[in-house]
Design brief:
Oligomer: single chain
Strand content: 15-25%
Shape: globular
Radius of gyration: 19 Å
Order of helices and strands: HEEEEHEHHEEEEEEHEHEHEH
Helix content: 25-40%
Number of strands: 14
Largest sheet: 5 strands, antiparallel
Bound molecules: zinc ion
Distance between the termini: 59 Å
């Protein structure tokens, strides 16, 4: 089926705007393999089944809906229920997943219980669970990192997209904004890592960061301008003790001792 035919089928599903949904694929008929995203005034679709080539994206008109979504801060719902999929298995069940967390300095955070990390057998991802703010044993979402280059997207958000992935200890009074979950885990013995996952700063990030005495922005060196933009945004939000931390590499490539050196030497 070509792009136009696929688009017609997807449009025929009448999925409302601002929705991300997983459903049975109308093209290959596999169960729950099709992901459709109608946020940001787009329709994007992608089937995770390896034998299926369904994927595409269609940009809608920039209507008022789009304008409102872009410029008006949406009230963010932090209590959306999230059911942990059956395909999430313990980390020990997959060697690639274990290797990923070793190579990206998450092992310590995982073994000390600062992070809940699982393996999604269905999507072949190492999955970082997002804990409920008050109830540490409940989850509000998860972030999955693809373990093979054939899996798209590289980072996949399960459940609530407004709650940041955070890794740290209660006694920390300093936090660092990092690129991804692995970096948040890597820093978590020294200070609390808050992953922004390639997006801009959300209202929920800012609210969460208010509790810290000092905040660093520690994105990798390709994101220097973004780091300063984020620092300025936090300052205009009223947080004063904000510092951009220039880095030679992504924080996930540094050991705990190296990270201690980066922040406190
Ligand atoms: Zn399919």
């Amino acid at each position: 089926m070509n792009y136009k035919q696929q688009l017609e089928v997807i449009q025929g599903l009448s999925i409302p705007p601002d929705t991300t949904i997983r459903m049975d694929c109308p093209f290959c008929h596999n169960k729950n393999t099709l992901s459709v995203d109608t946020t940001s005034n787009n329709i994007g679709w992608y089937c995770f089944h390896t034998s299926c080539s369904a994927k595409g994206k269609h940009q809608g008109e920039k209507n008022m809906n789009y304008v409102n979504n872009t410029f008006k801060k949406k009230e963010e719902n932090l209590n959306t229920e999230f059911y942990v999929p059956d395909s999430f298995k313990i980390l020990d069940s997959n060697d690639k997943a274990k290797k990923y967390i070793h190579k990206n300095n998450c092992w310590e955070a995982w073994s000390w219980g600062r992070a809940d990390i699982k393996y999604d057998v269905k999507q072949d991802r190492v999955v970082f669970m997002i804990r409920h703010k008050q109830k540490a044993h409940e989850f509000v979402g998860a972030v999955g990192r693809a373990l093979s280059s054939a899996t798209y997207p590289k980072w996949y958000m399960y459940g609530n997209k407004d709650v940041p992935f955070i890794c740290g200890l209660h006694e920390h009074n300093e936090a660092v904004i990092v690129e991804d979950c692995a970096s948040a885990c890597a820093v978590s013995n020294i200070l609390t890592g808050v992953a922004i996952l390639g997006t801009s700063l959300k209202q929920s990030h800012k609210q969460y960061l208010k509790q810290y005495d000092k905040i660093y922005v520690g994105l990798d060196r390709d994101a220097t301008k973004k780091s300063y933009d984020i620092a300025n945004e936090l300052k205009s939000y009223g947080l004063q003790n904000v510092h951009v931390k220039p880095l030679s590499d992504d924080l996930k490539y540094f050991s705990t001792e190296e990270i201690r050196g980066i922040f406190y030497d």
